Amino acid sequence: MPQLTDEAAPERSAPERSAPERSAPEAPLPDTSPPETSLPDTSSTETSLADQGRAAGTWMTPEAYGASRAALWTGAVVLVTDTDGRVLVQSVDYRSDRLLPGGAVDAGEAPSAAAAREVREELGVDGRYPRGLAVDWIPADTPGFPAGMRFPGEILHVYDGGTWTPERIASVRLPAQEVTGIHFAEPADLPALMDPGDARRALSALRARINGSGTALLEDGRPTAPTALDRLGVLRTRRTAQRGAWHPGPVPAQLSVRDHRGWLFAPDGRVLLLIARATGAAHLPSPAAAPTAGAFPLGYRYGEDRDADGARGVHARTAARLTGLAPAADPAYARLLATPEQVRELSDWGPAGARELDAVHAARTRLSLPAPTRTPPTELPESATRW
After folding, report:
1. What residues are paired with 246 via a beta bridge?
2. C-beta of residue 99 within 8 angstroms of C-beta of residue 179
């Protein structure tokens, strides 16, 4: 069941258009044109064609045309994440599942204005949300609506609320009724917390934000033109938490390396990313996954697990320039090129993620590679690739 509030948005009829005003005719100028050749009178033919059009059903009165148009509700919601990439959902007193902030668009109200109003009314936070992430068509036969509601279907706009800092989250003030609490949820947990259609829509909108390619068009929460992230179902399983502090440079000799991954740069400044086809989980590749040049240790972070002696292993990172790709060795993984920012948004690195990203930018500069423009991640063929 899609987004609902206790507000109802009445339908509006289109205003009648009045005939344009006519100015007084100007005085005629002397006719100096040569005599015209007489042409046959076609007025009766035109009238006949118009009559045929009416008879064939291609012409309608304004009343009949208006009655023939579909009537749909309009709604607006806002997708907000915290600095760890979790999605803000709220509990309400009229439903058992969670919702994104938002609700009905009032009569005469623009959807973006409705989004700002709803966030202000529900969370006490002022803001503007001009960037659309998705527009979803919700069919009239969607389960969960009471018959007496006569749900006609809905067009629902999803706006980008951005990433909220801890300070902004702390400024949230809930109203006396309707919204009973907020929670930041791991993207993979949304299907367990939300109505199925709402969860599909939220995940599709989040992927559209990561893609950075503009507003996604959805039908019942599913993209009409799926990107690689949509096709592979990224974020449908929980991200692996790697929240240890970031340490630049090589791993000290006394530490045990539990996991070694590479920031492997293509010539356009993007990096190689692996997506598990079975789970949608995103991983950086091994430094040995492809031919490289100019490799150097980038840094490391401690893992959460410990060995029998109580010592923690580390997750090591290497930076290098890709010189090509061998044929895909493991069909269980799709190979993508993505910006470093997109890799971070698909990962759970905690506050230290920003420091690792800074190190990645410095490595790209050291390798004399350009800063890439955010575009949807590109899935690479399974055949060999050379640059």
Report:
1. 301
2. no
- Position 197 scores a pLDDT of 97
Q: Pairing between strand 73-82 and 154-164?
A: parallel
- The answer to whether the CB of 198 falls within 8 A of the CB of 3 is yes
Contact between 288 and 275 (Cβ < 8 Å): no
End-to-end CA distance of the chain: 49
Half-sphere exposure at residue 382, Cβ-oriented, CA atoms within 13 angstroms = 7
Count Cα neighbours of 232 within 13 Å in the Cβ-side half-sphere: 25
Q: What is the helix, strand, coil percentage profile of the chain, to 5?
A: 25, 30, 45
pLDDT band with cut points at 50, 70 and 90 for residue 12: very low
Half-sphere exposure of 104 (CA within 13 A, CB side): 14
CA distance 28 to 42: 26
Number of residues that make up the chain: 387
| The token pair that represents 38 in the structure block | 């007489």
Helices (H), the chain: 43-56, 62-68, 111-123, 166-170, 190-193, 196-211, 228-232, 340-345, 353-366
Residue showing tokens 């042409």: 39
Q: Indicate the pTM of the whole model.
A: 0.84
How far apart are the C-alpha atoms of 87 and 128, rounded to whole Å?
18
Distance CA 387, CA 383 (A): 13
Cα 344 to Cα 89: distance, rounded to the nearest angstrom: 22
Contact between 379 and 272 under an 8 Å Cβ cutoff? The reply is: no
Residue with tokens 């895909």: 328
Task: Write down the pLDDT at residue 310.
Answer: 65
In order of 165, 251, 271, 275, 292, the CA distances from 284 in angstroms are 27, 18, 9, 9, 15
* Residue for token pair 């890439």: 372
Task: For residue 324, report the phi and psi dihedrals to the nearest 5 degrees.
Answer: 170, 180
Q: How far apart are CA 150 and CA 63, in angstroms?
A: 23
**Per-residue tokens: 342:** 């997109």
Measured torsion, CA atoms of residues 52, 58, 64, 65, in degrees rounded to the nearest 10:
-150
User: Could you give the CA distance from residue 264 to residue 294 in angstroms, rounded to a whole number?
Assistant: 10
Residues 6+ apart with CB under 8 A from 174: 122, 123, 124, 180, 181, 182
pLDDT, one tens digit per residue, over 309-368 is 667 789 999 999 999 999 998 999 999 999 999 999 999 999 899 999 999 999 999 999
